[in-house]
User: Fold this.
Amino acid sequence: MSPKLEKLKVTVEAVLGARAMRVLVDTSELIVELKAADLTQAMTTLRDDPTLLFSQLIDANGMDYEGYGDSWGGARFAVVYQLLSIQHNWRLRVRCFCVDDEFPMVDTVNDIWASANWYEREAFDLYGIVFNGHPDLRRILTDYGFVGHPFRKDFPVTGNVEMRYDPEQQRVVYQPVTIEPREIVPRVIREDHYAERK
Assistant:
């Protein structure tokens, strides 16, 4: 670990204290895991503390950990935030797991960083993660009548509905998917006695 990364790790652990559930380094980046209940307070501290000053939220996205290895026993949904401190030239990744897999929800950070607005709407649209307190939480990438959340791992690859232009009605219509699901298995043809030596 570089001295710069070590300094950031020590500083974050000192400032957040018990609010940081876990602090680890992965691929030369510091990752902090927070409880959903501590998210707003911890993120405000990361932005305002003079030893950190993470003034920019660069990105925020949803994650679906369903089927993430045999040993995974954690929550299914998480929100991952990428923060930047211009003053100290530091980057930080913050991960917050949603408590309930059936209704994933965390508090919004839109009041802390205005740039979170569209990121949170995207995570809501694609993963179904609800951001409590968001001023305008609605779909941003999919159609208004879209059913489901397409980035969830249990979402069907072919989708639920398809749209096509109907020349009789002279408009676009929605209908159930007509594509039959199939598995594509490569066909291997080998000559007789392929592996035998002559």
